[in-house]
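User: Structure please.
Assistant: Input sequence and predicted structure:
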Amino acid sequence: MTNNFPLTSFSALIVDDCRTTRMILRRALENLSFVVDEAEHGQDALERCDANGSYDLAMIDWNMPVMDGLNLVNALSARPQYQDMSILMISTRNELDEMLEAISSGATDYLTKPFTEDELKHKLGDLGFQSKV
């Protein structure tokens, strides 16, 4: 007997000031059955989180206007209601000390741009989203 119950979707917030990057990430996540929301910068992301509640995953660029990704990671990590949200920092910054700074600030993991769809899927699996990957 097969289980005909639908799989539960995960929710994701993409935070990047580049519209093209948001579009690429949205398409990849929607193909993996994520429900996706977008924000153009950190302040926009905080407002969306406060209005909508926690997401399962936040994918955050580092370099953005208004509030950069590192400040957003710090702000989310300081709020208990977001402690279960996986935070994936995605950036062109590829120095080890920068990656460690993001992780020590509260990012769950780090992915360097540019990346392939397979690299993204692998990283999502590492974060515990393997049932959709």
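The chain has one domain: 11-123.
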